[in-house]
From TrEMBL:
The keyword Metal-binding does not apply. It holds the Pfam family TetR_N. Keywords: DNA-binding, Transcription, Transcription regulation. The keyword Transcription applies. InterPro entries: DNA-bd_HTH_TetR-type_CS, Homeodomain-like_sf, HTH-type_TetR-like_transc_reg, HTH_TetR, Tet_transcr_reg_TetR-rel_C_sf. SUPFAM superfamilies: Homeodomain-like (SSF46689), Tetracyclin repressor-like, C-terminal domain (SSF48498). Residues 11-71 form the HTH tetR-type domain. It comes from Leifsonella bigeumensis. Residues 222-231 have a biased composition (Basic and acidic residues). Residues 210-231 are annotated as: Disordered. Residues 34-53 bind DNA. This is TetR/AcrR family transcriptional regulator.
């Protein structure tokens, strides 16, 4: 990887290249994307690209890492004021869905990584899971959830968020009530919507039951006893 920029201007240029890469990779896919297209979208000379990245693969891998860093930050920031694990899950999922609505390219780019850079794909998911494991382990030890395996549950929760986000945020109204995609639907990086309240609440009820978490408003001493009773 090339050295980090040494000036504020260089930092801004590098960020502009990453923003342009997000747009180009989402619209064209990795194979059709090019350094020329990225530099044109960023409004910089092609030679400038090589001051910050050595290749198309390097900027792609850096983009996956950048999106991962930003989505984790969005989830952490959203859940900062939560006082229980279920509140943290609720706020974190809200943060994730909002980020997805603002950055629908996340889906296509992460899926492209499966073929372009499997190591980047694995790093993306494991970094999210690692944070989940820490939080779930603490919640289990505090009796906020039942006798769960944090490593397994972390992957389950991430799968729920990804699929719900794809169906209701990314596809939005282009999917019929029976789940069939509309003729004009583009599941890779199309227009965005939001998760309806009914869907979000049902998802959270499902997660709450799966975690063995007490209902909101349960007194702390009863919540801790209930959690331990499920072990």
């Amino acid at each position: 990887m090339t050295d980090a920029p040494r000036t504020a201007r260089g930092t801004r240029t590098r960020a502009r290249l990453l923003e342009a890469a997000e747009q180009v990779f989402a619209e064209c896919g990795y194979s059709e994307a090019s350094i020329v297209r990225i530099t044109e979208a960023a409004g910089v000379a092609q030679g400038t690209f090589y001051l910050y990245f050595s290749s198309k693969l390097e900027i792609f891998e850096e983009l996956v890492e950048d999106l991962n860093r930003r989505v984790r930050h969005a989830m952490t920031e959203a859940a900062a004021g939560a006082t229980t694990r279920i509140e943290s899950e609720r706020a974190g999922f809200r943060g994730f869905f909002e980020f997805t609505a603002q950055h629908p390219a996340l889906y296509r780019i992460v899926r492209e990584a499966e073929f372009v850079s499997p190591s980047a794909l694995r790093l993306h998911y494991t970094r999210i899971v690692d944070g989940y494991i820490d939080g779930l382990s603490t919640a289990r030890d505090n009796g906020e959830v039942g006798d769960i395996n944090p490593g397994i549950v972390a992957w389950i929760l991430m799968g729920i968020g990804e699929m719900v986000g794809m169906r209701w945020v990314l596809w939005g109204s282009d999917v019929a009530d029976d789940g069939a995609a509309g003729a004009e639907n583009d599941p890779t990086a199309s227009g965005t919507s939001r998760v309806p309240d009914e869907v979000f609440e049902q998802m959270m009820r499902f997660i709450q039951r799966g975690l063995g978490a007490p209902a909101p408003g349960t007194p702390p001493e009863h919540a801790q006893k209930t959690g331990k009773d499920r072990t």
